[in-house]
């Protein structure tokens, strides 16, 4: 007897590049049959007219600050689940909001709305190693301390090391090599928010390719749209493809919006940014109180940088057609880069995946449904070496999202950044209903996924080590 049968769904077959009609049988959290399933089940979902996809895997997002003891300690994880994400990678752009071990231990003890992996964030490690400011170069002793902290975080379960170079202008190439040396012969995944954007975007991408070559580690270039979506997207994609062709293990991710989002006090908004973007103060919109909803001018820009440096803002500075070009490229994984401060932030954290399916694929025809799904499931799963996720096949985890392909679309916007999408009918984690449109309390079926629990990483020794 099956635990669950999902009947008559349309299921992506990534090998064939097509959607196929199939039933899915689930038992003990796993997919045990795909195709014509006759066996009886304790529960059934009729998916006639609906797509049944592997749960979306968000390789690039920003986790919440967990609030132990609060009735609802999770923030962004709830919005992730509501848009079909069942597994997410935290700790991106060099930043972890709490220690890696504390984060994963909390999830082990309390469950989570989604499965979580995490990177170790280099900027957070840099501060722990005693570098006082992002504008201050690290000493050799501090770099050595960083390598030790990276090693600790990998042992605590981090899958890799993320950089946020634009936030820490003083980080040198040698510092990155030194910090990555904490992997000490183990394979890890590097991810990096590049050094600069706009006209400096291409050279920034090349620096990350060089870092991958130098360390021998795989490199995930973060949210490409906000790096080279200023006129250089095509060339940046070509340089990634050329690196890949000569054997460098490099991919990128990107989100489907023409505005980026970060803290107003960050180094991204240092002198010269508006010249680089060819835009003025009016391109920035405040997403948090006390200036929430207002457009920036010189006075509010200076005031906020001084008084509310942690306040999130959106900067409408990238080209929309290049956001689409990035998402449609075969080397680019769909990711949200979602970030919230207690529910305030950019709508991408609640809308990125449905937006690609509804607007980029269905409405604009920029990529097929099956290709869009591949970039949300199989591609990030293989990048993260999650061998049992990202596919609908016997033996895979029953993390699934059921949606209406004719209706799915994001509704979150810059005024209401956490609104759930339309068209998601059900989300399952480990074969159990994690979210249904009928609402109700979330059962927190998500688990931590530590590096040593992932066969593809724990056995991974670097070839040149
Ligand atoms: Zn970033």
Give an account of the 3D structure.
This protein is an alpha/beta fold and 465 residues long. The protein has 2 domains: 55-258 and 318-388, TIM Barrel (Alpha-Beta Barrel), CATH 3.20.20; 259-315, no CATH class. The chain has 15 helices and 21 strands. The chain has helices at residues 76-82, 100-110, 122-128, 140-156, 173-180, 201-215, 225-228, 233-245, 273-277, 298-307, 320-328, 348-363, 369-376, 378-383, 455-458; strands spanning 2-13, 18-27, 30-35, 41-46, 51-54, 56-58, 85-90, 115-121, 160-164, 189-193, 218-221, 250-254, 260-263, 284-286, 312-315, 332-334, 340-341, 344-345, 400-403, 424-429, 432-435. The strands form 5 sheets. The chain has an 8-stranded parallel sheet. Helix 4 (140-156) packs across helix 5 (173-180), helix 5 runs parallel beside helix 6 (201-215) and helix 6 (201-215) packs parallel to helix 8. The structure holds zinc ion. Zinc ion binds next to loops.
Level of helix content?
25-40%
Bound ligands, each once: zinc ion
* DSSP strand content: 15-25%
Structural class: alpha/beta
Instruction: Classify the fold: give the CATH topology of the largest domain.
Output: TIM Barrel
| Number of E strands | 21
Instruction: Say what oligomer this is.
Output: single chain
Q: Biggest β-sheet, characterized? A: 8 strands, parallel
Coarse shape = globular
Number of helices: 15
Radius of gyration: 21 Å
Low-confidence stretches: none
Please give the CATH architecture of the largest domain. Answer: Alpha-Beta Barrel
Q: In the CATH hierarchy, what is the superfamily of the largest domain?
A: Metal-dependent hydrolases
Domains (count): 2
What CATH first level of the largest domain would be assigned?
Alpha Beta
